[in-house]
């Protein structure tokens, strides 16, 4: 019986690289990460790619598969293969280091620009401030807190593609969770940081980030919330 083979196109080199073609045996319950690992272990050991947990926890295996940003460890071949072929390339809108590996520096620097760090209002010597799970702002935090920084939304965002200074959906989703954290004291600076055209006002609400988020988060909703908060802050003279 002839073994069924997948035709796999894999990006090689840097930004000016090209695709290499590989044939990989088709397996039951095979993931795209399994395909990449097979190529690296059995065909071309020089192939560079990034992964860690293999179970959809770390997000480090995100790549562009048949034109869409995905976690490769959670993407089964049977769900993405087209006419027996798969194309795998690095995430878009991020500098290519080599092959399927991108430099995430810009992505995380934008979290810092969006003031994505918690600014405490109490010290370690104060009593813990309880936050009820039914409190309205707490529920808004819950809706966006599961982002693990994989970059899939950033690579999908059309605004990032044509406006490199745009903060991107993940950074602003993080800002939104902090805006709604009643213990945080950094909102004035945070809203100033995300309130311009490079921030929430630059979003076109096309919801590509929502479609491609593996965690099923809604950064577009978070950005809409930031727009409302910046308007309120502006009316109060804080911006």
Question: How are the secondary structure elements laid out?
Answer:
Blueprint lengths: L4 E8 L5 E8 L6 H12 L18 E4 L2 E4 L5 H4 L4 E5 L6 E3 L2 E2 L2 H9 L22 H7 L9 H5 L1 H5 L6 H11 L7 H8 L13 H5 L6 H17 L4
Parallel strand pairs: 1-5
Antiparallel strand pairs: 1-2, 3-4, 3-5, 6-7
Helix pairs in contact: 3-7, 7-8, 7-10, 8-10
Q: What does it look like?
A:
It is a single chain. This protein has 239 residues and is of the alpha+beta class. The strands form 2 sheets. It has a 5-stranded mixed β-sheet. A two-stranded antiparallel sheet has the order 6-7. The chain starts with a strand and ends with a helix. The chain has 10 helices and 7 strands. It is elongated, with a radius of gyration of 20 Å. Helix 3 runs parallel beside helix 7 (169-179), helix 7 packs antiparallel against helix 8 and helix 8 crosses helix 10 (219-235). The chain folds into 2 domains: 5-102, Ubiquitin-like (UB roll) (Roll); 105-235, Fumarate Reductase Iron-sulfur Protein, Chain B, domain 2 (Orthogonal Bundle), CATH 1.10.1060.
At a glance:
With 239 residues, this protein is an alpha+beta fold.
Examine the coordinates and then state which fold CATH places here, giving the name of the CATH topology of the largest domain: Fumarate Reductase Iron-sulfur Protein, Chain B, domain 2
Question: How would a textbook summarize the main sheet?
Answer: 5 strands, mixed
Mean pLDDT comes to 95
Provide the CATH architecture of the largest domain.
Answer: Orthogonal Bundle
């Amino acid at each position: 019986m002839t073994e069924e083979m997948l035709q796999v196109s894999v990006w090689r080199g840097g930004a000016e690289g090209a695709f290499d073609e590989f044939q990989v045996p088709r397996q039951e319950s095979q993931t795209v990460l399994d395909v990449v690992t097979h190529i690296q272990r059995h065909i071309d050991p020089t192939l560079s790619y990034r992964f860690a947990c293999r179970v959809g926890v770390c997000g480090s295996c995100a790549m562009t598969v048949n034109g869409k940003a995905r976690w490769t460890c959670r993407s089964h071949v049977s769900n993405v293969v087209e006419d027996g072929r798969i194309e795998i390339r690095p995430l878009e809108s991020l500098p290519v280091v080599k092959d399927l590996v991108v430099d995430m520096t810009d992505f995380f620097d934008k979290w810092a620009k969006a003031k994505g760090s918690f600014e405490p209002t109490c010290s370690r010597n104060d009593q813990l401030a309880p936050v009820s799970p039914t409190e309205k702002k707490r529920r808004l935090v819950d809706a966006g807190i599961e982002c693990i920084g994989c970059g899939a939304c950033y690579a999908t965002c059309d605004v990032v593609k044509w406006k490199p200074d745009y903060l991107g959906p993940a950074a602003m989703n993080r800002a939104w969770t902090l805006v709604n954290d009643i213990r945080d004291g950094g909102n004035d600076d945070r809203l100033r940081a995300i309130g311009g055209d490079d921030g929430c006002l630059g979003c076109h609400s096309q919801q590509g980030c929502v479609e491609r988020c593996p965690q099923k988060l809604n950064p577009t909703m978070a950005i809409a919330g930031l727009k409302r908060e910046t308007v309120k802050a502006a009316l109060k003279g804080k911006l």
